[in-house]
Structures are given as C-alpha cells and as structure tokens.
Amino acid sequence: MVEPVGNHYVVARPVYSENLFNEEHEKLHRYHKTFWDHLKLYFRCSPQRVKKIALGLFPIVSWLPVYRFREWILSDIISGINTGLVAVLQGLAFALLVNIPPGYGLYAAFFPVLVYFIFGTSRHISVGPFPVLSLMVGGAVVRLVPDDIARNGTSTNISAINEEKVMVAASVTFLSGVFQLLLGILQFGFIVIYLSQSLISGFTTAAAIHVVVSQLKFMLQLPVPGFNKPFGIIYTLESVFSQITETNIADLVTSLVVLVIVFVVKEMNDRYKAKLPTPIPIELLVTVLAALISHFVNFEEKFNVAVVGKLEEGFQAPVAPDVGVLQSCIGDSISIAIVGFAVAFSVAKVYSIKYDYPVDGNQELIAFGLGNIVGGSFKGFASSTALSRSGVQESTGGKTQIAGIVSAVIVLIVILGIGFLLAPLQKSVLASLALGNLKGMLMQFKEVGILWRKDKYDCVIWVVTFLAAVFLGLDIGLATAVAFQLLTVVIRSQIPSCTVLVNVGRSNIYRNRKDYTDIYEPEGVKIFRCSSPIFFANIEFFREKLITAVGFNPLRVLRKRNKALRKIRKMLKKGELQVTPKGLICMANHTQESDEELDNNRIEELDQPTSMTDLPVHIDWGADLPPGITVPRVNIHSIILDFSAVSFLDFSAMRVLQKTLKEFVRIDIDIYIAGAHEGFLDKLERCAFFDEEIKPSMFFLSIHDAVLHILLKKDIASSPKLKLAKEKGSSNDYIIIPSNGLRSRECTVRLLSPV
Fold first, then answer.
1. Distances (CA, A) of 659 to 15, 531, 540, 603
2. Membrane topology for this entry (predicted)?
3. Within its chain, how far is the Cα of 331 from the centroid?
4. Percentage of the chain surpassing pLDDT 70?
5. Where are the alpha helices (DSSP H) in 120-154?
6. How would residue 460 be classed by pLDDT, with cut points 50, 70 and 90?
7. Rounded to 10 degrees, what is the CA torsion of 98, 99, 104, 107?
8. Tens digit of each residue's pLDDT (9 = 90 or more) over 24-52
C-alpha cells in the first residue's frame, strides 16, 4: 500500500525475499521460446505474413497510393530539379576520387535513385555518390590498376586501362551490393550499432583528409600515382611535393578561385538560410561559368589544363562483374557495404525523427544492395547519400522520393543530351567542387574537445579511428577502429565500477558511501554493488574488489580457522588444553609448530567447512584464543550483493561466484543477493548453482528488504534493540518501533526463516 503525504510517500508492505514474493503473488512460469521456436515463427507462412513481407519489401506500395498530389507535387519537382543539378556535378567530381573518367559518375547518380524509389523507406535522403565511398572504391581501383601504368602508355592503352579501371570499380560496387542485400535478407540491419557516432565521425573526418590529398594532383595537375597501402597518404604527399615545381599555374589559380567562391557562398547559404527561399546553387553557377570561360578562352590549348573531355552519350549495355576482381576485393566490398549503409542510415534516421515516420534498417540494406548491384552492372560505382545533397533535397521542399525521381530525370537529360557542354570543363574545377562539399566533415575536428569533456572513451575512439584511417588507409583503418572500439567495451566491462553502499537519509535509498555525509551503515553489514555484467573476463576483478571491500580474504580466514582447530585438537589430545566453564585454558607452554607440519599434506581439507562436533566446547572466533593460536578477526556477519545492474552472468563466472560465496558462508557470514533481474534465479537453478550451502532464499527484492531482514534476524537472535509487539490477526507480521534510527516511520515487516 502506498500513501502519498505531500511530497513524501509511505509504503507499508512485508519484507520480501524473491521466493516469498513469488509465492505470495503467484508468479507465472512462462514458456520461453527456444531458438527453434523463433526459427519456425520466422519461416511461418500465412496470408497475413505474405502481405506484410510484400508491403515491407516494396515500401512504395504503402506511400505512393496516399501521395498528396496537389499539395506535394510542386515542392517535389522544385526540390528534384535542384537536387538533380547538384547530383550531376557531384557525380562528375566524385568520379575523380574513383580514378575513372568523370562521365561514369553520372551512372552512379542515376540507377541507384531508381532502385531506392521502389525499395527505400526514407522520404528525404538523396541517393547517389558519396565522397568517402568513392575514395574507398578508388583505393581498390588504384591497387589493382596502378596509375603508373597509365602514365607510360599510348592513348589507345590509356583508353583500355580506363576501361579496366571502370570494370574494377563496377565489380567492387556489385560485390558490395551483394553483401548489403544478403545482410538485409538475413535481418542484419542492427550491424550499424557497432559503428558508434564517434567512430563514424572520426572515420569520415579521416576520409575528408584523404579526399583533400587525393585531389591535389588534379588541382596542381601533377602525375601523382595512387598508393593504396598503409601510410599511402605520406607517399602521396611526398610525390606531390617532390613535383611541386611542375605545378600548372592555371589549374592552381582556377582551383583556389573556385574554392573561395564556393566556401563564401555556402557560408552565406548557411547564415541566411531562413531568409533565402532556396539555397544559391553555387556549384551549378560556377560549373557553367567555368565551362564557358574554358571554352571561349581555350584553356586546354593555351595553358595545357586537364579537362573533362567528351562524355559517353547514352547508356552502355550491362556487364557481368569480373570474377578475378571479386576475389581480390572481398575486404574492400565489405568495408564499402558497411560504411555506405551506416552513413545513409544515420542520415535517414535524422530525417525520420524530424518528420516522424519509420525507417527500416533491414529494408534500407536491401534497397542500397539492389541499387549497387544495378549500378555496378551499368558501370557505376558505389552509392550512399551525401549530406549536402540530402540537405538540398530536404531544404528545397522535398516531401517524398518523387523528388529523387525528378533529380534522376535531370541526370538522364545530361547523360542523353547535354553532356557534351561539359567537355571543356577543367578537372581542377571538379576537384575544387569535391573539396567544397567537405566543410561539414572537416568541421568535425571540433568534436574532439567536446568529447574529451563529456566522455573520454568516446574521444579516444574518435582519435584512434581518425589516425588509423588516415595512416593505415580507409579499409584497414575501419577494421582497426571497430576492433579498438570493441576493445574499449571489453575494458570497461572487464574493469567494472564496484562500490560499497550505505543507507542515505535513514530511508530505503542506498548510495556510494564516499558521496554523502548523512549515512547509516548497519553494524556488521557490507553492501557491495557491481555495475556491470559478470562474465569470465571480469569475475576475478569482481572477487578481488569484494575481498577489498570486506577487508579480508575468506579463504585465508577459513584455512586459518581449520589450522587452529587442528592445533586445538592436538593440544587437547596431549592435555595441553583443559575445558572449563570459562572456556579453554592452556595447561603447558606451547611450542610453535610450522604451518607445513600442521598441513600434513592435506591442504584440501583446510578449504572445507569448519567442524566442531568432536570438540567438547564451541569455539568463539571473536573471543580470545589459547596462546600460539591466531586467527584473523572478522567484524562482519552479513554481505549484501546488489545485482540490480548485473545484466547477465555466464557459466564460467557462475562457478567462481559460487566458490567465493561458499568461502564466505563457511566462515559464518550470511550472503544475500538483491535486485537480480527477471530470469536470473531461474538460470542459476538450471545451472545447479544452489546446494546445501548456497540457497535460493538468499535472494531479496531490494537492498532494503535484505537489510531489514538482517536487522530483524540479528535482533531476535540476540538481546533485541527493537521492541516487537505482535500484530493482531497475524502470526508472523509485527510492528517495528525503531530505536536505531534507520526507519523514520513504523512499518510492517514479515519475519523470514533463516537462510
């Protein structure tokens, strides 16, 4: 019963152990499904399930019939046109990161959008090339088709080598799509939880650094080979600076001018976005202007600048992936699949929360997997979502993926009809546009200081991820970062927070005794909390902390007591001790004997419970013992283990815990476990944890229940400090009139049988 009294509440209920509570309230024994039950349920076939799977696999069937045509169509068209123009330019620019001709970036900006329109669940993200993924694909391309081969060949050979690069990029993309599709079918959408926000932030920041370095050769027009190996970024910078005197000044000036213009206008877009009806399409304006100037001034002939050149018109026939490339790029494809999904899903989640609609991680994997399979078949490269492009689609009024279809139409127009207008565009302009989209990623350096103040573990993860990805490469760096992140989890769980609790405010609240002054610690009672799962890796740490908290090693005390009993029996047999009403009296000078002699090669017997049945008197270990017999004093009689934060206990840890608890029980210390979660007791019973020494009755609902039980048990066993008046109508319910100050109100408790 709970009675509110102002801003206080008064609770009157019995003191409950787990068993008593379950018996009194008739706990149900539920059937827990096994793995096979879940498997049968997953593969069960019914009309309702088929309908649900079909609607889940084709989300378009759910939202397209209820599309608000009159309200949304104009916004989606405007948004799609803006997004499509950005997608064209980013497709051309990010193709340079893949080390393939720019025109193939248009395929990566077209096909995945069509697939996502049918299979995707997010309404606002813009699907297409993403700089980090482009760079990762480019790493595989450089490794399998080195740049130095292309530099030393004829135009015919260069064309063949470019085709080989395109094939590598397409094959890697196809395989990453297969991995994403398999993960989606197998319901592995949860895999994204292993990439924390700190890891993603550090990784994308490192990728931005790689993008900057990789674009230097286009901005300076230097023949820099690719180095897709550990410390490749250092080799690249070395190659750039060794040829710095050969820089094409026209490309350098163009790049710097474009960068300044893009950064300034983007800053204006951010600062005045509330006043601007739509962001200024600076990438489009710069591209058109640069192409016109290059064409009429004839930059290619006058200044020998590198230009985009003739783009492929129309679509090429789909091709099968190269089996040899697939075998060589399994690791690259897995990394690309996971990173692409993680980035896209995190962006989709932001918009889903903002506009209150669900996003299915497994279906997103299927959508991106199919998109990459189709895109790779048509010689595109890996797609995800670019933050800037999705921001344009959402900020210009995009409501659904109809805007994505409109953007795909814009890309289609460029592919089929007007791509030739971009032929005189300098590659250095595309490189500058690629760098202009990295501002958000590079600004993530600010997070280091914030994370250091908030969570040092996350800060270390960010720094390690960044350094590993920068110096070891994106693929090895990602694997290193994930391994290090999991290692931090192991370290934190292997070294859990263990504290000694006390009563605060004379209520039912228990907190760390180091944090408060108004505390009450029941005499002879230690309350110990472990705030972590207990498993094979941290059980020894748990044991050591528990021994430190109580102030003695129970096994050492037990062995000392058994050795003392051996000495007493030996002295009684020799007549050196005599039994009197006051206890044992030494009748002769005792000669010190070594522990080795007393052990008599029976060390295992010292670990058994003490037995005094053959002695004429009971030994009080807290009183004075005969001369020559010393045993460590134990000043506690009860230990309460707070397991409210222990989510699981594995079998290895269970064995050690059982052994430790038995050591305490054998030196007459009562053990209680409080706050264990549902199913904990059942698991212990299944694993044969309980026996004559360790019993289920040691489990209590809360710390306060255990403390009250201990106080009552000790007060009744000795001269009571509490006055007990039997309550009418009940044989075992009593009213406590406190004299120790623990409870500020009278409360009803139920006495339990001893453990």
1. 28, 21, 12, 17
2. Multi-pass membrane protein
3. 22
4. 89
5. 131-144, 147-151
6. very high
7. 0
8. 888 877 777 777 877 777 777 778 877 77
**DSSP 3-state helix, strand, coil percentages of the chain (rounded to 5)?**
60, 10, 35
Query: What is the reported pLDDT for 155?
Result: 56
Q: In the block, which residue shows the tokens 């103040």? A: 453
DSSP state of 503: E
pLDDT confidence of residue 656: 94
pTM passes above 0.90: no
Strand, coil or helix: 523: coil
Distance spanning both ends of the chain, measured CA to CA? 27
Instruction: Output the pLDDT for position 579.
Output: 72
Is pLDDT at 434 greater than 80 in this prediction? no
216/650 Cα distance (integer angstroms): 54
Q: What b/e sequence results for 59-98 when a residue is b if at least 16 CB atoms lie within 10 Å of its CB, and e otherwise?
A: bbeeeeeeeeeeebbebbbbbbbbbbbbbbbbbbbbbbbb
Q: What is the pLDDT of residues 673-710, one digit of tens each?
A: 999 988 888 889 888 999 988 999 999 999 999 999 99
Residue type, 311: L
Contact present, 321 and 175 (Cβ < 8 Å) = yes
CA–chain centroid gap for 87, Å, is 32
Asked if residues 214 and 138 have their Cβ atoms less than 8 Å apart, the reply is yes
Contacting residues for 469 by C-beta, under 8 A, at least 6 apart = 202, 203, 206, 207, 210, 477, 478, 481
472: left (phi over 0), alpha (psi -120 to 50) or beta: alpha
342 in Cβ contact with 192 (< 8 Å): yes
CA atoms of 672 and 683, how far apart (whole Å): 17
DSSP state of 417: I
Which segment of 18-27, 321-330, 385-394, 705-714 scores lowest on mean pLDDT?
385-394
E strand intervals along 322-403? 384-385
Please name the helix (run of DSSP H) or strand (run of DSSP E) that holds residue 736, with its range, or none: strand 733-737
Other Cβ atoms less than 10 A from the Cβ of 280: the count is 13
Q: In angstroms, what CA-CA distances link 504 with 507, 644, 741?
A: 6, 18, 12
Assess contact for 402 and 72: CB atoms under 8 A: yes
Write out 77-90 in H/E/C secondary structure.
HHHHHHHHHHHHHH
* Cβ-based neighbours of 547, under 8 Å, separated by 6 or more: 553, 554
Q: Which residues lie closer than 8 Å to 543 by C-beta, 6 or more apart?
A: 656, 660
Type of residue numbered 521: E
Nearest 5°: the CA angle 208, 214, 220 is: 125
What DSSP element (H or E) covers 747? strand 747-750
Cβ within 8 Å of residue 506, ≥6 positions away: 520, 741, 742, 743, 744
**Could you tell me the pLDDT band of residue 118, with boundaries at 50, 70 and 90?**
very high
Backbone phi, psi, residue 152, to 5°: -100, 10
Mean per-residue pLDDT of the chain: 83
- Can you tell me which residue has the tokens 């152990």? 17
Distances (CA, A) of 277 to 125, 349, 395: 20, 26, 9
CB 115 within 8 A of CB 367: yes
Q: What percent of the chain has pLDDT over 90?
A: 25
Kind of pairing, strands 8-11 and 384-385? Answer: unpaired
Helix (H, G, I), strand (E, B) or coil at 431: helix
The token duo for 565 is 């009993």
In the block, tokens 């007791």 appear at: 681
